[in-house]
Each structure stands twice: as structure tokens, then as C-alpha cells.
């Protein structure tokens, strides 16, 4: 079976590759930080990335308004953005200077229902030459990853080529469809999946549900994966919603809890993150504890991004942007909340370069209270 793909070269902050084809050395655990290369301070943190104890986040401007159920976001090399509509199954280009929206086309085969539909987006690591856009979506039978040629020279509405399915068979459900995809610093595709409401799938390493998958751009299990011949990178997840790498190529992921704890995790290849046996921190040494945890009414996390020495995490039910300053793969200080209740549900956050983030609201997804102009993309300045 061809393997799964993952979202967004836009989440990358480190551009180098691991030399042996395996996952980046820095994808370490909180309990035992992995070996890394490059200059670092005695604390193990890369020189110059020490986050302040207290940060800030301020909306600089509204980039675009009137988006319908936006979910995935992918920055283009020219500075514009591609955004997916979960319920419409379309991809739209947003001019970040003027806010002008141009629909590129509808992705065939998308079957939106509940939390499923057209979800994560990512650009090929060779986008400059191949113009390939990757997408994760719910079909009538499963969740899958496809890639499509984006031809800017064709008329509006016809710029997306036919989807080429590179990975399929991920369990689907009304809930917990995962959906975040991202290309890592190793140029492999990472895919966050959910257990589709069937909790037993998370601990089953033969299942694709409740996992982070690591694939080649063609959808095969990536070289160096922890379980031979398998796309599984980590397991024991409930519903992975965010993927991001820090400046030392360590992978972090956000995850929905059930009724008690939402999580931010530092991902180590082959580790078990506990669901459904554990939610949040656990006394069982066989499970990898989260970097930070929140009550579900404070977070219900979705996308994450790395900037200014911290992970920034969008909250849906929590309606706020969380900052988690990092000390290696640990939280350097207590998480801080910003924009609480100001823009409603927050779905996706992506680095925009330097001290800026792109932040996408999610008030038209059936669970929010839309205001005039929703949904929108915001530019946020952080420190």
C-alpha cells in the first residue's frame, strides 16, 4: 500500500536534511533529549533562541475575510497563501497584500461530514520545480493524501490538476479525522491522523488511526522509520491536529484530549503517547508524557507553529492563542494565553517569517458563532 503524506513546508523553520534518510536527530523526547548538531548553549538550547519568560502576541492586520470553513494553510514562495475549505472542498489563493481571494478549483472526491472534509495542505519540498500541492481529505470511504499540480497560467477555477492519490486507507469517522500534514526538515511528509472515534486503533501499530505517519513524497514508508516497512512514526494518539519543528529539527504535535487534558507533545520516533490508556501526564513509564497540558475548555488545540523560541498553538474551544516557551523539549515557563475570545475559534497558525504568524479563525465550522467578516486570516506579531 502506498504510504501517507504530510502538510506544510510552511511550518518549517529549519531547512537542512538528516544525512542518513532517517528522521531528524532532534526529534527527541522530553525525558532524554536526542543528539543534535550545531552550536548550542550549556542548557542544550541552540544559541540565540532563548525565549523571554513573558511574550506577547498582537494582531497587526486582517489579511482576508469571508472564508468558508477554512482549515489548511500553505504559504506560496511569492508570499501569497493557499487555504482549504473543509466543507466546500475548494482551495483558494489569498493575496496577502490586498486580501483578494481567487478560487483555484474544487478537489474531486472530497466527502465533507462532521469533522471531515478537505483538511491539511502542504507544498512539495521541490515546489519551485514541480508546483505540487499536497492535500489531506476525507473521501466517501477513508481519509487520504493526494497531490495536485498547481498551474498558475490556467484560468481561475481550473488551476488544480487531477489529484494523484499517494496514500489512502486512513480510518474516517464523524469525529477525529486528524488531517494536518507537513514536510519536515528531512523532506519527508508527516501526517497526523485521528482514531476516528474507535479508541482501540491508537494502540494498534497495524492501524493507521491515532498515529503520526512519516512518508516519502511518493507516499511510501520513509527510510529510517522506527517499525520496519511501516509508515508509523509514533502512536497512542487520539487526534493529532498540529505539527511543527523547532530550530533544532525537533518535532512537536498538538492533540485533542477527551474530557480532561489536551496536549502538546515532543515527538520521538517509535514512542507511545498513551491514548486511550492515558490522557495527559501518566505514572506509566511506557507512555511519553506531554510537554504541556490544558483542560479541554482552555484549548481544544488545532494548528501549531514555531517562532521566537516558542511553540504557538491555536485553540478552538479555548478561543485563544497559546505560547509555550521551550527549553529543549521542555516548557521553559508556564504557557501564556493571548487573544482570548477576541476572534472566536482559532484553527491554524503558520510562520510568516521573523516575528510574524498567519492565524486562521474557525467560526463557520458549525461549532462557532460567526461574526460579520468570518472567517478570516490575521497577521500576528509575536515575541
From TrEMBL:
Cleaved signal peptide residues: 1-19
Keyword ATP-binding among UniProt keywords: no
InterPro entries xref list: 6-blade_b-propeller_TolB-like, Glc/Sorbosone_DH, Quinoprot_gluc/sorb_DH_b-prop
Annotated keywords: Signal
Keyword Cell membrane: no
Boundaries of every Glucose/Sorbosone dehydrogenase domain copy: 67-367
Domain of life where this protein originates: Bacteria
Coiled-coil stretches noted in the UniProt entry, renumbered to this chain: none
Bias-annotated ranges (Polar residues): 35-44
Disordered, as annotated region: 14-57
Alphabetized SUPFAM superfamilies for the sequence: Soluble quinoprotein glucose dehydrogenase (SSF50952)
Xref: Gene3D superfamilies: TolB, C-terminal domain (2.120.10.30)
PANTHER family (UniProt xref): HEDGEHOG-INTERACTING PROTEIN (PTHR19328), HIPL1 PROTEIN (PTHR19328:SF13)
Protein name: PQQ-dependent sugar dehydrogenase
